[in-house]
Design goal:
Elements: H1 2-21, H2 28-61, E1 63-67, E2 77-80, E3 85-94, E4 98-103, E5 106-107, E6 113-117, E7 121-126, E8 135-143, E9 146-157, E10 165-172, E11 175-181, E12 193-200, E13 206-213, E14 217-220, E15 228-237, E16 240-241, E17 252-253, E18 273-279, E19 284-286, E20 292-301, E21 305-310, E22 313-314, E23 321-326, E24 329-334, E25 343-351, E26 354-364
Parallel strand pairs: 2-9, 19-26
Antiparallel strand pairs: 1-3, 3-7, 4-5, 4-8, 6-7, 8-9, 10-11, 11-14, 12-13, 12-15, 15-16, 15-17, 18-20, 20-24, 21-22, 21-25, 23-24, 25-26
Helix pairs in contact: 1-2
Subcellular location: Cytoplasm, Myofibril, Sarcomere
Protein name: Myosin-binding protein H-like
Domain Ig-like: 65-153, 275-359
């Protein structure tokens, strides 16, 4: 629109000059006089058109300043200590604009930060980043009274320091309770958590129990009975685990718990009873000269006294007879009986609760 308007103005000016130079009703010397008077305007026409064309060309070639910030730099730009920082920021502006970098509102430290400004971009370079290089960097592109700015947040981080201390609080059963304090230096960024490890005193090998644990106390379970354990804790952030870790001063000794047997109450049963024959004597017939045995069974508590009788006479001390009693079985052996040994034989059992007896008949032929 600006170009078209300028052309129209130039054409209109040219028509006015030609109309003044060649009027329709011009005659004789009057016309020649007017031609002479118009000749200075014709001489001025080329200079007017040149100025107009130059102004149009300048308007077409000039551009307002503008910065294109890469997507990766629109969020916090994180680097590790010792890494290099190399940021290329494109911009536009014609003629070449003036670019200025600031760090937290102040001028850059030229001993650490290098800047190269081109026709269409600006480069910020740090060879080895340090934590002091973290902060807000601002690029300003200025052209005349117009300017554009872009802000970049840089965060330089490193591994955290170790937790300040760790303490073994309690040991019970196969469990141990630990407590520790956070590190003094988190590495210029938030902690991701703690890593807890245990080591058996016998092997000395460390095994991880918990990873990225967020509290400063924990319970370690499933420890082996009879072993002794040491514990240590690492702090962790985006750069990794701390270089060192504190170790518990005391060992956790997992002892076998004493087994306590609780017996149920036992009521003593009274087994006392009076004598009672469970197997009586049987009548028998024997032959002269052949040994004969009489057998019966008795049950009693306490143990009864056994007495053998023949025809109601005590046989104790008679060598012709041998009496035995074992586990309630009572026997009487008649050695080489004769016809005179026939008769009624009685076995009597006596204890404190009473007595019992059984009889049998023996015939000798």
């Amino acid at each position: 629109m600006e170009t078209a308007t300028t052309s129209e103005i130039a054409s209109h000016s040219q028509r006015q000059v030609e109309a003044a130079a060649h009027p329709v009703d011009a005659e004789g010397p009057q016309a020649s006089h007017q031609q002479e008077a118009a000749s200075p305007s014709q001489q001025l026409l080329p200079s007017i058109e040149g100025d107009l064309r130059q102004s149009v060309r300048v308007g077409m070639l000039s551009k307002h300043p503008k910065i294109w910030l890469p997507r990766a730099l629109r969020q916090t730009y994180i680097r590790k200590v010792g890494d290099s920082v190399n940021l290329l920021i494109p911009f536009q502006g014609k003629p070449k604009p003036q670019t200025t970098w600031t760090h937290n509102g102040s001028a850059l430290n030229n001993s650490r930060v290098s800047v190269r400004n081109g026709e269409q971009d600006s480069i910020l370079f740090i060879r080895e980043a340090q934590r002091a290089d973290s902060g807000c960097y601002q690029l300003c592109v200025q052209l005349g009274g117009l300017q554009a700015t872009a802000t970049i947040n840089i965060l330089v981080i490193e591994k955290p320091g170790p937790p300040q201390s760790i303490k073994l609080v309690d040991v019970w059963g196969s469990n141990a309770t630990l407590e520790w304090t956070p590190p003094q230096d988190a590495g210029n960024t938030a902690l991701l958590g703690y890593t807890v490890q245990k080591a058996d005193k016998k092997s000395g090998l460390w095994f991880t129990v918990l990873e990225r644990y967020h509290r400063t106390s924990c319970i370690v379970s499933d420890l082996i009975v009879g072993n002794s354990y040491a514990f240590r804790v690492f702090a962790e952030n985006q750069c990794g685990l701390s270089e060192t870790a504190p170790v518990t001063a005391d060992l956790a000794h997992i002892q076998k718990a004493a087994t306590v047997y609780k017996t149920k109450g036992f009521a003593q049963r009274d087994l006392s009873e009076a004598p009672r024959f469970t197997q009586p004597l049987a009548d028998c017939t024997t032959i002269t000269g052949y040994d004969t045995q009489l057998i019966c069974c008795v049950r009693a508590s306490p143990r009864p006294k056994i007495i053998w009788l023949k025809n109601k006479m005590d046989l104790q001390g008679n060598p012709k007879y041998r009496a035995l009693s074992h586990l309630g079985i009572c026997s009487l052996e008649i050695r080489k009986p004769s016809p005179f040994d026939g008769g009624i034989y009685t076995c009597k059992a006596i204890n404190a609760l009473g007595e019992a007896s059984v009889d049998c008949r023996v015939d000798v032929k």
